[in-house]
Amino acid sequence: MADTALRLNAAVTVDLVVLTVRDDRLSVLVVRRGGAPFRGRWALPGGFVGEHEDLAEAAARELQEEAGIGAIQAHLEQLATYGSPRRDPRGRVVSTAYLALLPGLPEPCAGTDASDARWAYADDIIDEPAYLAFDHHRIVTDGVERARSKLEYSPLATAFCHDEFTVAELRRVYEGVWGVTLDPRNFHRKVTGTPGFIVPTEQTTTRDGGRPAQLYRRGEATLLHPAMLRP
Amino acid sequence: MADTALRLNAAVTVDLVVLTVRDDRLSVLVVRRGGAPFRGRWALPGGFVGEHEDLAEAAARELQEEAGIGAIQAHLEQLATYGSPRRDPRGRVVSTAYLALLPGLPEPCAGTDASDARWAYADDIIDEPAYLAFDHHRIVTDGVERARSKLEYSPLATAFCHDEFTVAELRRVYEGVWGVTLDPRNFHRKVTGTPGFIVPTEQTTTRDGGRPAQLYRRGEATLLHPAMLRP
DNA sequence: GGAATAGTGTCTCTAAGACATTATTCT
DNA sequence: AGAATAATGTCTTAGAGACACTATTCC
What we know:
- With 231 residues, chain A is an alpha+beta fold.
- In chain A, 26% of the residues lie in helices and 26% in strands.
- The first copy, chain A, has helices at residues 55-67, 122-127, 136-153, 167-178, 184-193; strands spanning 11-22, 25-32, 42-43, 46-48, 75-82, 93-101, 117-121, 198-205, 213-218.
- In chain A, the strands form two sheets. In chain A, strands 1, 2, 3, 4, 5, 6 and 7 form a seven-stranded mixed sheet that branches. Chain A has a two-stranded antiparallel ribbon with strand order 8-9.
- Chain A binds chain B through residues 1-3, 5-12, 36-37, 48-49, 51-55, 78, 80-81, 83-85, 88-94, 96, and chain B through 1-3, 5-12, 36-37, 48-49, 51-55, 78, 80-81, 83-85, 88-94, 96.
- The structure holds a DNA duplex (27 and 27 nucleotides).
């Protein structure tokens, strides 16, 4: 009813920090901007929120449109909102960033309407603050930090793995995201000893060479007890 | 320049989850709404973001205006953003919630322009989903959960204490926020053994009766190692 | 002295880190 | 056989929880 009282004071958008582990390194999806401002520069995928859309819906739609990734395959969670009055030269743009985590894909990247898209190593982006447009460097930094710390106390590392995975693959996720090396034997004991983290399937694989490895799926746990502590 | 391209599609507001520990219980500040919609109902303090304001600035201003609390005394951090298209009957309102943590105040509550304000026990609010207007029940739930989990791995519990505090006072913060009782002796050993958490002053106090207690201030640590684990 | 609270010490058990050993595949 | 990887086992040590005991105030 009282539409009169409401004054629209901002343009609301969503931006996506899409993370995966490629070549054993944490990587971020970046797209080349097709329009002003910052035309031709690299930036995070994102766009305006539709009139009848929830923020999370808009994020899932952008993930599909700009990266060709169905939301079912990806873990998607809200990261933070950036609303400095000068963050976009066009005017007051308030952007809610979402964090998306995906398994490493066989195809190089995306087949979609984004004029150009590629994976960049997260550390390279973080080390080069002027590489991305707008305040996207800060958003990536926040997203990477969120992912790194959530690996400790949540089973989120499995979001970087395919449906079935080996303990070694899960370990390489931790190593790639944290940028460390972990003792395979202690890691195996810890991860299989944490209730609800991963559950064995009936199958094994030799895709890594050597002795066949047990395949696992994600478990039901939402919090890890005990946690996987960063060295 | 290109103001033309920008279409304002939402009203952006901030809402505050102001938490403190009163009577050894976690409490939330709620205000009575003076205007439509939900006039007369209880809600979180908050308001529209000014044209040239950052989101955090708007949150600090609202904290001062609606609760009479200077941002210097309070810990203030962004919680999450709520933007369901139907969350406000007036139209598209996207609200970024901030979490504010304060020491228990001597004065009952606030002396300010909010027509009416009071402290409610967090558990009572959480147990009564229809008590607050809009989607504020969800916001409080998220804020309380954030506070509870951050006590584990950050020194945030000191934000609920005054400048100088005893170990027992800090313990009662943990007990009140988590709703548990902790062994005073193990708590003392843990908290004094965690580097950078709290630093002793030269003074003692007998305000709790019994043997004088050492007074402490917050330390420099930003992350607790080892963490204070919830039972 | 007795009540109240502060602070230290001791014991046990879980879990983390370092590292050896065995198991099962492939070439 | 030898290389590669998977999985289990052992030892040491840090830290959590349970709980006894000592210390310092007020009445």
